[in-house]
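haha ok so turns out i had the wrong file open the whole time. this is the CORRECT one, sorry everyone. sequence first:
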Amino acid sequence: AFFGMTSKFVEVTLSHKYREQTSDGTIAGGPMYYMEKGLNAKWLAVIFAIATVLSSFGTGNLPQINSIAAGLESTFSLDPLITASILSVLLALVIIGGITRIARVAAAVVPTMAFIYLVGAFAVIIPNIGNVLPSFISIFSDAFTGSAATGGFLGATFAYAFDRGVNRGLYSNEAGQGSAPIAHASARTDEPADEGMVSILEPFIDTIIICTITGLVILSSGVWKEKFDNEFQRADMNFVAG
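then structure:
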């Protein structure tokens, strides 16, 4: 998370510094702009733009929509096709409005989402407040032991557990991915470094605070000691099978 905060500051600051105003008055920016204008590497900017479009499906859309559809299906027996159709319409209404509407919607949705999540998390933590300190101790004492790797995923190696942790961190804060600076480029501020400082809060809140609270929910409630039926991803099952 701390490395993510550093990379987030750099990429957002550069994105804001090299942003441009389009003919319709909107602001456009991102890594592809400072690659072209700052590094004089238009070819690299083109590669990044194409890679970002492809990445938006694999890391930005498919996992999240799949999680929403699967959750609604298991809880309310709602057909995933209906969920996908509704989400497609809502996303289209946001995306068609351009970067300005995307930033405005994100500014409203993300804090609300975080607030609701925190309320639910503390509703679990507060009744189990006596287990919070032992949970913290177990997090730090077992972080680099064999139980961290084996308990993380059915006998996984430490390297695999570390890799999965980095992957989940990227899902959480997008630090270093290059997608967040595109949205930050439209911020109303004249000093690029100011926007970079604001962006540092994102990995801190997303990864350090919210993910820590998630861990405390699991550990303090004792649910991690119970066994539940789970359907793992095909890639995970192939890894376990060797």
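The chain is about 75% helix and 0% strand.
again sry for the mixup
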